[in-house]
Amino acid sequence: MQSPSRGRRLDAVPGPFTPRTPRVVAARRLQRRRDRDATGRFLAEGPQAVREALARAGTVTELFGTPVALDRYADLAAAAARADVAVSEVTDEALAALAETVAPQGLVAVCRHLDVPLDRALAARPKLVAVLAEIRDPGNAGTVLRTADAAGAGAVVFAGEAVDPYNGKCVRASAGSLFHVDVVRAADPRDVLVALRAAGLTVLATTGYGDSDLDDLADAGRLAAPTAWLFGSEAHGLPEELTAAADARVRVPLHGRAESLNLAAAAAVCLYASARALR
User: What region holds the RNA 2-O ribose methyltransferase substrate binding domain (predicted)?
Assistant: First the structure.
């Protein structure tokens, strides 16, 4: 049964939109970075991401859903309609074309880019910032973004040749956190370090070979100041010039026989150590 709360449709097409409907074709192009960059739009898939996107006013521009999903998540369809967002029924085939998961949950939203300039993010005087320097794996980047949000970080910076934060896998891995914190994209990580210091943040670089032990820093009270953590790629770590430029090079202590922690685990340990100290 058609619900009046589902809102309006942009194309006068009888029945649900198909993979060939122009609106679906246009949205599907957003799976490619060049089209996301050109349009300033990206896709958010699944009810959790859609819910968080709708909670950030002005973010969602269109919501696609199968009839079953629009009935199951009628509250989201109604919220979109109230925000004057186009809500369009699509076939299962069209939804599968828009989604990038094996078992999609029936909803895909077209969203506006959210990133802000670094100076604007720092003007809010965040006490905790995560910098993803040259991290190219979207799953790792999205997980660190989610962890930073959970730890209370005010901003997450994608610096240098880091992955696009609007990559579908990164958006899904963030589990909605992309819509909660200030996201910054910065071309030069060195400029980021200069700005962080000017804003009064201590810059800590994570490295397995650091000369400072995380537990020692915590015990000495050195994590109680506003802090920016630098995280590098899991394969190559931080660029040497960034590690050298940080205020301290920090290693996470390993008390067992494991050789190392993966990026997401190390980031969680560091960010929560700061979160505890700051509180």
Answer: 43-117
